[in-house]
Amino acid sequence: MAEILDGKKLRDKILEELKARLENYDKKPTLVVILVGDNPASRIYVNNKKKTAEKLGINSIVINYPSDVDEQTLLAKIEELNNDKNVTAILVQLPLPPHINKFNIINAISPKKDVDGFTPENAGKLFTGEKPYVYPCTPRGIIRLLDEYKIQIEGQHAVIVGRSNIVGKPLAQMLLQRNATVTICHSRTPNLADITKTADIVVSAVGGKIIGKNMLKSGCVVVDVGIFKDENSKTRGDVDFDEAVSVASYISPVPGGVGPMTIAMLMANTVELFEKACL
Ligand code: NAP
Q: Is the whole model's pTM more than 0.70, yes or no?
């Protein structure tokens, strides 16, 4: 039976450490979240971020715009926040409505306040091997979770299913920097199972139930990033947990695995941007 990669337990430990670190400062960091429209999932994510930030003593401001807001209004707000010395970190909750060009919006955030690490400067530094101001939260959380359980990365074959800018691509770079051999798969990859079966570490970031035990090598490590609601409105991951748990050596559950780590890393990134701005 696989050991569980417990993201909740590690999140709590990280948040305690961050809280203690912030007690050394007279000032508090301020995290500003821009939320456009009323996507229920986005609203839940933003509320969780706000609640967690406040527990740590981070000021958290959510600016909510209607779904028909224009790009110029968002760009003007980001410029104002970039220039505001009291603002530590800026996060634009994705997805944005289709009439807004998400690249224009992300590119406008100052790299020094880009708490998600998505701006071209931070993403570019990650890809060239230079240290970005911060690393993207979900990939950073995955690596932190693997490290907590002392899972070997160097020399291992890591197969990532999903090639998004927020998970698959940055995670591939971070695993490469840790000397893994990395394969990225996506919706046009033929014979996915043939590839995942060769993996020592499988990371799935798709958003649908696609990984069963017949796709896994015995003893592999399984990290499930996907989150979706099944036909009974139950929160599920990409991996058939009940099957995979009997094949893998370690597995992250959904919920309780990568999700809590993403929030913990968002807080860690906010604190790091704050400390860089203070020093
Ligand atoms: P995304 O941008 O929609 O990317 C999904 C990726 O999965 C794409 O690369 C897509 O391939 C690939 N894909 C889709 N169907 C596939 C299939 N049948 N076989 C192989 N690959 C397939 O999603 P995302 O933003 O990366 O998020 C992925 C999932 O992770 C979602 O469920 C999301 O909610 C979850 N997520 C969780 C956290 C967390 O903190 N736990 C954080 C971020 C995301 P193409 O590129 O070819 O379309």
A: yes
